[in-house]
Predict the 3D structure of the following.
Amino acid sequence: MGKPGILNIAIGATLLATGSLLSNQIDDLIFYIILAAGLLALALGLMKFFQDRGKSDADREAEHTTLRNEVLLKTLARMTYADTNTTPVEIAAVKKIYKKATGKDISEPEIRVTARGDLHEPKAFKKYLADVRDKISMEDKSFIIKAMAEVVKVDGAISPGEVDFFDEVGKAFKMNPSEIADLKK
């Protein structure tokens, strides 16, 4: 996962160093653009770094739990609609899994609304998964994948759309088949 802000700090420092090394070889406008970009990246990185340092372990754990629960709900809800036929048993499975994982109840309308979120833009969900991939643990990703398999099997029929969605989530999480099957070497 890494420390928040470190990448921005490194990018900013690199841009500043590059700009200063090339200052005599590049146009003044380009030099000032590189300098401004470097200072901006450095400032953002320092802000993120020091914001994170002010958080307690409990705050970080609460943020992680909230994110994990959000990813779980969005992924399971979308799994129910992967074949465009959300069945009552799939909804019941999502409610059961979510309750067991979070201790919180979720309603059928919440699941249905979440299932159809961003359906017009499938790339948005892939980007969302790529954005959260490094913010949740391998155990969380493995749990989500196994929960998806439980949801997809619950109605007794597995469609090509469900298989495709399952595979897309595995790829977005950068999990290989042995990780998905929870095989250990």
Remarks:
- The mean pLDDT is 85.
- Residues 77 and 115 are 4 Å apart (CA to CA).
- Residues 57-180 form a domain with the TerB-like fold (CATH 1.10.3680).
- The chain has two domains: 6-53, 57-180.
